[in-house]
Fold this protein.
Amino acid sequence: MSEPISSSADVSEKKLLTQRYADQIVGTVGCWDRVIITGTLTDVCHAGAVE
């Protein structure tokens, strides 16, 4: 299989969105992208918990 060819001009045009729209961005919010919960949640693991 052939691999895609990228020129140096293509690479130099690619920017992060925060760089591309820097003049329009007032701030950024950072957070976790996932939370892993292990074990059991005994307070919510019964039929009455959803009422």
Notes: Residues 1-51 form one domain. DSSP finds two helices and no strands in the chain. Helices lie at 8-13, 17-20. The mean pLDDT is 74.
